[in-house]
Write a structure and sequence with these properties.
Chain lengths: 242, 242
DNA sequence: TATTATAATTTGTATATACATGTAATGCAA
DNA sequence: TTGCATTACATGTATATACAAATTATAATA
């Protein structure tokens, strides 16, 4: 199917990112966009709502849609962007090294966490991430083997996400994340250049597919001085009354 | 105006939070909900999309809407929830102490940051947050004086947000946040029970009103062992192709 | 001129309809 | 019973219309 509203959204995103629509300016009115794209107003509104949710514009009733300044404070890393996608965006020199890659036995703590069938297995992947020659991130991934059957070192060095989505055709849908600070472990010291730091920032993620099956648990351990989390958040409509 | 979809959304949220709709179960179909609430399908879909965005349900094409398990991993703090709202939700014993509250001179670094008119002033509020008898958070707020003219110690001890929204009638719309880890400053040591910690988690927030004016800058400094950030994130539709 | 009232513009909400597409149930045939 | 095609049902997309509500522009009035 076409999905006009997605096309329009992406076209407008490009206009903003390329600076052809500047921050503070007003987008053409919905009516104007209708005739320009030859679509109905609801379709335009779907595109504009996406822009709004992702922090590109602010809609103001009676006035119009105002382009926001995305560059002032760098940008969202939120969502489910992977390390690789993120690195590419920021243009940093990065490197991924696969430390471990094997299937772990059933009946372990992680198996329960991932709600696996009893006879299946789980992939354990341990990777270090280098930025500017320093090992600053330790990623420990646990992926359900009954969902992802084949997994190679090369795939892990590239991007697991793009393999899962593009090659396997699985749709990653949402994740629950937790960010905390914890003392460094022996494992951290072995794989990360912790220097004098005695704590690391830990991001624990539970990643779900479209059919709500949990298929991955990830622990991403960052050296604190290299950690940065940027987020764009809207005050949600209904929640504030509860 | 009525805003039926908001009513329906909040009613369904209650059903889920009270356990009358259990995780894994399916919501009634959109068609069913239409006749039950006596509305059109688009209105139902607006309510369901809100549920989806806030992590209550997962919509699966051809099947229906599945209730997600919000309790397994505690819950979002994301968005713009304030310290007070958050504390009340988690049921923790908390206390807010106002350390400083005054108007700062123009032509300071913060004035530029807040893009103030030259002749106006800015409120500076410094507060400590106690949890279970320990001072673990230091909040430094800077608020534009030309937008919020009156501000008292009592208001700051309560909730600035509810004062701004409920009393002043201003609509807080969105925020850009950054989370980093930084060394403890003298100011931190003075106001926080840092104990042996030599670093703090810093959340810098830029808060905007509906008309896109930046009106507040906040630096929230947390003792690392008491810091926790929980987030629910959907893989956004358009972004992954860029 | 300055103020006020009115009209035009713009976004928000609600409804109705049509068709596409994915999933589940049904029934028929081998 | 099994396998396959059909049908029914569910959500996704697109269109059209109507009215509400906020803002801005215009016109009328003092």
């Amino acid at each position: 199917m076409k999905k006009k509203y997605l096309d329009i959204y992406q076209e407008l995103v490009l206009l903003i990112r390329e600076g052809k629509l500047l921050a503070g300016e007003r987008l053409p009115s919905e009516h104007e966009l209708c005739s320009r794209y030859g679509t109905s107003r609801e379709t335009i509104r779907k595109a504009l709502n996406l822009l709004s949710q992702n922090g590109y514009i602010q809609k103001v009733r009676g006035k119009g849609s105002i382009v926001l300044d995305r560059n002032k404070i760098e940008f969202p890393v939120s969502g489910l962007t992977s390390f690789k996608e993120l690195a590419e965006e920021s243009g940093q020199q990065t490197n991924t090294r696969v430390v471990e890659l094997y299937q772990i036995e059933p009946n372990q703590k992680v198996m329960e966490l991932l709600q696996c069938p009893k006879d299946s297995y789980v992939w354990k992947i341990v990777r270090t991430r280098e930025m500017d020659g320093e090992k600053v991130i330790l990623d420990k991934d646990y992926i359900r083997g009954d969902i992802v059957e084949r997994l190679t070192k090369t795939i892990c060095e590239d991007s697991i996400y793009s393999f899962i989505e593009d090659d396997l055709g699985l749709a990653i849908s949402f994740a629950k994340k937790e960010i905390v600070v914890e003392p460094v472990t022996e494992e951290d010291e072995t794989h990360i250049d912790v220097e004098t730091h005695d704590q690391v920032v830990v991001i624990r993620s539970f990643v779900y597919l479209e059919d709500t099956t949990l298929f991955q648990y990830t622990e991403s351990r960052h050296r604190p001085d290299k950690f940065r989390f940027v987020d764009f958040a809207r005050r949600s409509k209904g929640e504030r009354f509860l």
